[in-house]
Amino acid sequence: MQVLDKVRNFIDKNLTATVYYPHEEMKKHTTFKTGGPADLLVEPGRITELQQLIQYVRQEKIPYLIIGRGSNLIVGDKGIRELVIKIGKKLSRCEVKGEEVTAEAGAAIIDVAQVAQAHALTGLEFAGGIPGSVGGAVFMNAGAYDGEIKDVLEEVLVLTVSGELTVRKKEELALGYRTSLMQKNGDIILQAKFKLQKGDQAAIDLRMRELKQRREKSQPLDLPSAGSVFKRPPGYYTGKLIQDAGLKGCQIGGAQVSPKHAGFIVNTGKATSSDIVNLIRHIQAEVKKLFGVELETEVRIIGEF
User: Fold this and answer.
1) DSSP alpha helix (H) spans, the chain
2) pLDDT of residue 162
3) By CB neighbour count within 10 A (0-12 exposed, 13-18 middle, 19+ buried), where does 294 fall?
4) What's the pLDDT tens digit per position in 96-154?
5) Which domains does the chain have, with CATH numbers?
6) Residue 95 annotated among the catalytic residues of the structure
7) How far apart are CA 107 and CA 94, in angstroms?
8) Which residue among the candidates 178, 180, 258, 273 is catalytic per the annotation?
């Protein structure tokens, strides 16, 4: 029996709320809209079922990859030869108690910000335009407009490499610029609790609309992208470095440095993942040659090319 057939049989027998998709095109699961097929993509329907699945594949030594909404991901054009576990809409429950908002890892962080706004809770306005999931936002300590997840996070529920459900407080998570403990220790983020403050609902709504207008004015929201491709080097602005290198509008295949914001790479319609990665490498080489600055990618590049 093939390895991934064993996973399908296990799900059929044990996990009633979990679904799977053989030979699933990953372009359906990334905001770049590129990427070849995963041999098997699974979407767990409950935290308990995700725990069971992880315990099973670890016991059977089956390689797997955890993804969220694919907003920070480039998947190779030949796809992924391992099990892909997507924490998505099926794990997106969100609840509010007083000034605390608890959301499962698959919830869109934009939706959580809107829930907070609806309950007149302030602190998550900055996240109203971040396209990722709660799990991805915590994993990367996502931020925008002078706000970061670490500013409002209280604790997370994780599944450890030993298969245990554990609550970790913010202070344990080593949250820094686009980094966290979970990037190093293999914990899978299942749920996050945010500590917010009571505010004026009209003022919160105004702030979120102002930030939306700023994004629409400065960012290429009309084309598929993964947001900011590179981390900000200390002492520099990435978009300005790329623009000063004369690369604004530069194009390889269907991938283009956005003419609107040089920190973004966009899919103009027919880009492949290879186009995007080749453009990334070209940008890195030019910026290094001209300014001596090493640009580190914020996006994850996975799979076969």
Assistant:
1) 3-14, 47-59, 109-118, 134-140, 182-185, 201-218, 238-244, 273-291
2) 85
3) exposed
4) 999 999 999 999 999 999 999 999 999 999 999 888 999 999 999 998 888 999 999 99
5) 3-89 (3.30.43.10), 92-203 (3.30.465.10), 219-302 (3.90.78.10)
6) no
7) 7
8) 178
H/E element holding 95?
A: strand 94-97
pLDDT for position 51: 96
Residues 6 or more apart whose CB falls under 8 angstroms from that of 189 comprise: 105, 134, 135, 138, 139, 156, 157, 158, 182
Give the pLDDT band (50/70/90) at residue 2. Answer: confident
CA distance 11 to 103: 25
Q: pTM here?
A: 0.93
For residue 173, the model assigns a pLDDT of: 97
46 as an active site residue: the answer is no
Q: Residue 160's CB: how many other CB atoms inside 10 A?
A: 14
3-state secondary structure 215-243: HHHHCCCCCCEEEECECCCCCCCHHHHHH
Active site residue 133: no
Instruction: Encode pLDDT of 154-188 as tens digits.
Output: 999 999 988 899 999 999 999 999 899 999 999 99
Residue 244: closest CA among 269, 262, 267, 222:
262
Which member of 71, 228, 258, 273 is catalytic?
A: 228
Closest CA to 39 of 25, 23, 55: 23
CA distance 248 to 128: 27
**What share of the chain in percent tops pLDDT 90?**
94
Is the pLDDT at 28 greater than 60? The verdict is yes
Q: What does 97-144 look like in DSSP terms, one character per residue?
A: ETTEEEEETTSBHHHHHHHHHHTTEES-GGGGG--SBHHHHHHHT-EE
